[in-house]
Description:
10 helices; 10 strands
Amino acid sequence: MDILAIESSCDETAAAVIRDGREIISSVVATQIEEHKLYGGVVPEIASRRHCESIVGVVDESLAKAGMKAQDVDAIAVSFAPGLIGALLVGVNFAKGLALALGKPLIPVHHIRGHIAANYLAHPELEPPYLCLVASGSHSHIVKVNSWTEFETIGQTVDDAAGEAFDKAARAMGFPYPGGVHIDRAAKTGDRKKYQLPHPHTANPYDFSFSGLKTAVINLIHNAKQKGEEIDVNSLAACFQYTVSDILTQKFITAAKESGYKTLALAGGVAANSGLRSMLQQRADYNGMKVYYPPIELCGDNAAMIGCQAYYEFQAGHTAGADLNAVATMRLDRVTW
């Protein structure tokens, strides 16, 4: 089954052709990073306009790379929630129109389910059930993946997501947007013990809180400037990265041990962070657990992951009609369309 998938939840316009949920026939991503870098973050109105300008070309390029025409695919899939509402609407309306014109099934996909599914494209042996840590710019979740389309969220952020904290802390350190990659690079030559940063407490032991940690970094930098002291940016980056990785990994491993999971997966944009990947691997090995990671190119937003999850949603009978709408916020374990 060949699925043409479309992703436009934030600032990447993406399209891909995926075969039987596991094989990438083509994948194209048009990023807007350079434009949003001017503003220190994603500007929703600009993102929506750029999606309108890019989506036809991206879809055409994806089909051309697959050596196919639009009528050759078996279904159209689209990320419909969650995300920036204007950005989502571009992808959803384009996908609805294309599916209607071609007479093909329309498969709605929850964006975070797509991030989890990115692992299937690199690891054919991975099958539910397992426990997944999703860490991205807008989301931080610990999820029980009970089946291909059945999920249970047991932990989530109560304020800022991990990726958001990376970007805002990076901005305070003087790095450009997106900040996560710059912190990762700087941390490699820093002393992770030089600065003391807090580990926020949450009522639910599996929940996350990064707002206080982000504020602690900002206050540390401001206090140093007021005193005329120099900040060792590389060491602060190392301390921040280590602290975020420690919080994510500690809660994730604890949840796995207490829930009896030996198979783990990591997903989302922050899954590309080398410090997090290394720490999680070490602690998983120590506890006799197997952990799966998506390849770096599939950690960020892309349409290949949407096409992968769409295959399993279609097998479960999850299709939509012309009344499908975009939704800005929606839990991945309570999906409706």
